[in-house]
Amino acid sequence: MTIIIISIILISLFCLYGYWTNRQLDSETIILPSQNLPAALNNLKITHISDIHLRRFRIDSESFIQSIKDTHPDFIFITGDTIDRTEDLDTSLIQSVINQIAVIAPTFVIEGNHETSCGNYHKWRKLMLDSHATLLENEAITLTHNGQEFGIIGLKNEITTLEPAILDNLEHLSTVFVLAHHPELFSDYIKNFSKLSLTAIFSGHAHGGQVRLPFIGGLLSPHQGALPRYTSGCYSHPTSRTKLIVSRGLSNSRFPFRINNKPHLVSVILKRT
């Protein structure tokens, strides 16, 4: 009987811990050194958000928005899965959430696999196009910060390249960022954009490996399977200086909870070296 009581207590504590951690935001700052960074872009701040899965979002909305404000971003990147595929877009508040984020700083959004499989993709797309954010759909844009131009590429779900004519317009830039939902395609992005000066690729999708263990990391993620390689933080590539920035995301999907894996808000600060 004692063993049963102890087991019940331990299971209850574990469930309470899981309930609590799934509602606590982990704000991480990543310092990103870059040898080719123009002086005008030194200390540029990018806040990276991914995998909101709004229907399953459990963080207090006001504190979430305040946490984004506290990062003092120059730009905000949202790398897909803003909604869950089960979401009712006729009643979804995703446009309102995106608008609240976009008030903080210029915001750029791409789709993920949940948008494309939600059954009402055109509705989601219209909500984004009518929002205060910029939806990027296999396109590249040039922005200016402190008088210095840089490029942003936004890819649709599982796309890894763009038309040569689009890439030609970016070749003169010393700093280019890519927004792409799938981190497991890191090498494909590097190969297909090899003519560009890519500083970083921003991704999500892996949900941090769902369950994270000390010294091991995530245990399982979509498209990477067991012991996934790219789940959280900053990664290097053996043939390129380009970094991969992976957000663990903010919510769950089919797997209903995270273990030792708090929702993740990433702030990237560029540093000239």
* Average pLDDT for all residues: 93
CATH topology, what is it called? Purple Acid Phosphatase, chain A, domain 2
How far from one another are the termini? 63 Å
| CATH class wording | Alpha Beta
Q: Approximately how much helix is present in the residues?
A: 10-25%
- The neighbouring-strand order within the major sheet is 1-16-2-3-4-5
Individual helix count: 7
- Give the CA-based shape: globular
Strand content: 25-35%
The H-level CATH homologous superfamily, spelled out, is Metallo-dependent phosphatases
Q: What's the structural domain tally?
A: 1
Task: Give me the CATH architecture, please.
Answer: 4-Layer Sandwich
* SSE string, helices as H and strands as E: HEEHEHEHHEEEHEHEEEEEEEE
- Label the structural class: alpha/beta
Structure description:
With 273 residues, the chain is α/β, with parallel strands linked by helices. It has a single domain, classed as 4-Layer Sandwich (Purple Acid Phosphatase, chain A, domain 2), CATH 3.60.21.10. Helix content is 23%, strand content 29%. It is built from seven helices and 16 strands. The strands form four sheets. The protein has a six-stranded mixed sheet with strand order 1-16-2-3-4-5, with helices on one face. The protein has a six-stranded mixed sheet with strand order 6-7-8-9-15-14, with helices on one face. Strands 10-11 form a two-stranded antiparallel sheet. The longest helix has 20 residues. It is globular. The termini are far apart. The model has no long low-confidence stretch (mean pLDDT 93).
